Amino acid sequence: MSDSAALTGTDSVAVLLMALGEEYAAEVLKQLDAREMHRLGTAMASLHSVDREQVAGIVAQFNDELVNQNQIPIDTHDFMKNVLTRAVGRDKAKTVMERILNEAGATGVEALKWMEAAAVAAGLKREHPQIIALVMSYLEAGQAAEVLNLLPEALRHDVLLRVARLDAVPTAAIGELNEVIEKQVMRNINAAASFRVGGPKRAAEMLNGLDTGVGATLLDKIKGVDEELATRIEDLMVVFDHLLNVDDRGIQNLLREISSENLLVALRGADDAVKEKILKNMSKRAAEMMRDDLESMGPVRLADVEAAQKEIMNVAKRMAEAGDLNLGQGGGGYV
């Protein structure tokens, strides 16, 4: 984009949020409804770089330093994932990102960056190891590790060896790689794809949107039909990410009721936004010690993390029912 006049109002807002950064952008997105967030997310995903004149025309009144930059490089995948997760939580962010991906027309490796590791692995597992290695070298390290873990065991060492041996890749080869992804890998992904609808998680989200009395009555009726399913739904109504909705005073009250050992394990598998929410409500010394412990601790089983998080949320739920904190779940649920 070279002409600022060519930018729509939504494009201009997208540039402004990109310039402000993830934290402030997330705070703005929290104030938008679903339709506005969708439109703005699509605009963000369509941007690649913005020249100095455009930035100056949009944000000069907010930040003089931006006027002196030639362009703002934008990693749309990381930025959108982090901003949306901060704004609406990890699960809703995934849904929004999938819709944005379809409308923004992302292709090739860029399209794969937006996808779940399981989908990428399903699309790659029948490809030549060299193709897989090239793709993996362009993915974010965490995503690449997840994909590698999901590939057939016989493929893993070969792919990793090829990644380690990669050096410079000609521009033409990147174009050919994107063609292979579009013609073969995406076809494999689409063939293996299925759309998840409903389920206990969806039922839990719906119950959280109801008035407390109505939700409790419905859950009791489900218990009369399928007690195990009702228990799963009830567990999903209060999950660790919901701590983002709790005010600082509520977090401080919660911290007084749980052990540091349990919190340490729970934070090991928590989103960064949740970690920061909790750490900022601890004393400076306690927060520093917790950060040090998190950095130095060894691998923790996922089951142990989930158990610790569930135990903490059970405490939070009891406190919410007693009026000691507000989990902030829409019009109903536990408040």
Automatic annotation (TrEMBL):
InterPro entries according to UniProt: Flg_Motor_Flig, Flg_Motor_Flig_C, FliG_a-hlx, FliG_M, FliG_N
Protein name in UniProt: Flagellar motor switch protein FliG
Residue ranges constituting the Flagellar motor switch protein FliG C-terminal domain according to the UniProt record: 221-327
Recorded GO MF terms: cytoskeletal motor activity
Taxonomic lineage: Bacteria, Pseudomonadati, Pseudomonadota, Gammaproteobacteria, Candidatus Competibacteraceae
Keyword Calcium: no
Physiological role: FliG is one of three proteins (FliG, FliN, FliM) that forms the rotor-mounted switch complex (C ring), located at the base of the basal body. This complex interacts with the CheY and CheZ chemotaxis proteins, in addition to contacting components of the motor that determine the direction of flagellar rotation.
Domain Flagellar motor switch protein FliG N-terminal span(s) in chain numbering: 7-106
Coiled-coil ranges (or none): none
